Amino acid sequence: MTAVPHHDVVIIGSGSGNAVIDDSFSHLSVAIIDQRRTGGTCLNYGCIPSKMLIFAADVRDAVATAGRYQVDVQPDVDCTRLLWPALRDRVFGVTDAHSDEGRHGRERSDYVTYYAGHAEFTGPRRLRVRTEDGAEHDITADKVVLANGGRPVIPDVVADSGLPYETSDTIMRIDAPPRRLAVLGGGYIAAELAHVLSAAGSEITIVSTSEELLGAPQDGDIRATFTELMAKRHDVRLGVELTELTGEPGRLVLHLDDGGTVAADMLLVATGRTSNADRLNVAAAGIDTHDSGRIRVDEFCRTTADGVFALGDVSTAVPLKHVANRESAVVAHNLRHPDRMRTVDLSTVPSAVFTNPQMASVGLTEE
Ligand SMILES: Cc1cc2nc3c(=O)[nH]c(=O)nc-3n(C[C@H](O)[C@H](O)[C@H](O)COP(=O)(O)OP(=O)(O)OC[C@H]3O[C@@H](n4cnc5c(N)ncnc54)[C@H](O)[C@@H]3O)c2cc1C
Predict the structure, then answer these.
(1) Whose CA is nearest to atom 8 of ligand 1?
(2) Tell me, what's the pLDDT at 78?
(3) H helices within the chain, ranges in order?
(4) Ligand 1 pocket residue status of 12, Cβ below 6 Å
(5) Average pLDDT over residues 193-214
(6) What is the Cα–Cα distance from 355 to 23, expressed in whole angstroms?
(7) Pick from 118, 284, 296, 334: most CB atoms within 10 A?
(8) Ligand 1 pocket member 34 (CB < 6 A)
């Protein structure tokens, strides 16, 4: 019988999980596993490409409104649009190169084994990895770090329709902006991507079950003012639910519970994100989850299973990159120094929304 390969540390997820490992781990055997592009959501599908596109949208808005500030911009500012394919290619040219470089760096390392594949527990600190070539690898570890993030939530009414839809994972890479984009959801991801696609020339309709755009942690006054501004620029349908999605690819009709309809060429689903904990078979490893699906951790980022830590969107109540980064630094320290572990404090996390206007907040709201 061949022995199951054993690692001192196994990291699932190469987003913030990748940052746990630096050369202070070089005397150990480390494995990093990822089923998608190296670098995770922030680099490939989230913060970085969205903020690069948003910067271009901001420049477009500044040019288009330059006349208000006595700046004479030529030629006709009404035609100012993002040059989409060229912009998209520049943005993903940068992020894809970073991702490829990150993966090759790990593959070249003499103390890291990089598995490009999906990992699931088969027992306590025992995993099966299905790699992209179809092979299965069973491995064991002294310590496991769960940094496997989250994914967009797709409401059943959309999934069951069989019609095409985009999420934040896909919409930034589309070939051309649609003439009419329906955005399902009213949180910060919906607002930011609506800002980008609007600057790219799409007519935007936002459909949200809430009465106001942007949820906590934005202050009530800010939510109300932002909702008012968005309603002046876009068709905004609030306090309504999508009951049916009909039509055909490129000619969709959203049916709302107030009897209204929205015709759109493309649908962006931005109705929130959920933890990927449900795709790890955590029950086999004795790892508890909250009712929301997030992995339960203590202030040291320890799960309920001995030797297993979790960080970032898979476990945190505040799914933002700087939180995942902080947790990754805490886990890196706690792996090396179990006798003097550090803690994470999420009581005061700053956040920002990169729309027009930009908003930032930290600490308690007036409410
Ligand atoms: C559009 C968008 C914009 C955003 N903008 C901002 C922003 O401006 N500021 C901010 O702070 N945050 C922002 N975020 C949130 C931020 O991206 C996340 O909080 C952060 O990336 C989470 O990092 P993570 O390491 O926990 O997970 P991820 O970066 O998602 O990494 C998880 C990795 O695990 C892999 N994986 C999952 N399951 C398995 C498995 N079973 N086996 C193997 N691999 C697996 C995945 O492929 C992925 O690469 C944004 C998110 C989105 C979607």
Answers:
(1) 47
(2) 56
(3) 40-44, 47-64, 84-108, 156-159, 188-199, 220-233, 321-336
(4) yes
(5) 96
(6) 39
(7) 334
(8) yes
- Which of 10, 20, 47, 326 best tests ligand 1's pocket when mutated (most atoms within 8 Å of CB)? 47
Contact status, residue 43 vs residue 19, Cβ threshold 8 Å = no
Q: Is the model's pLDDT at 232 over the cut of 70? A: yes
Over range 310-316, report the average pLDDT: 98
For residue 366, the model assigns a pLDDT of 86
Which residue's CA is minimally distant from atom 6 of ligand 1?
47
HEC secondary structure over 170-214? CHHHCCCCCCEEEEECCCHHHHHHHHHHHHCCCEEEEEECCCCCC
| CA separation for the pair 367, 365 (Å, rounded) | 5
324 lines ligand 1 (CB under 6 A): yes
Look at residue 74 and tell me whether its pLDDT is greater than 80. no
Among protein residues, the one whose CA lies closest to atom 2 of ligand 1: 46
Asked if pLDDT for residue 132 goes beyond 80, the answer is: yes
Nearest CA to ligand 1 atom 51: 46
Which of 96, 154, 321 has most ligand 1 atoms within 8 Å of CB, for mutation? Answer: 321
Residue 1 in tokens = 């019988």
Q: Is 112 left (phi over 0), alpha (psi -120 to 50) or beta?
A: beta
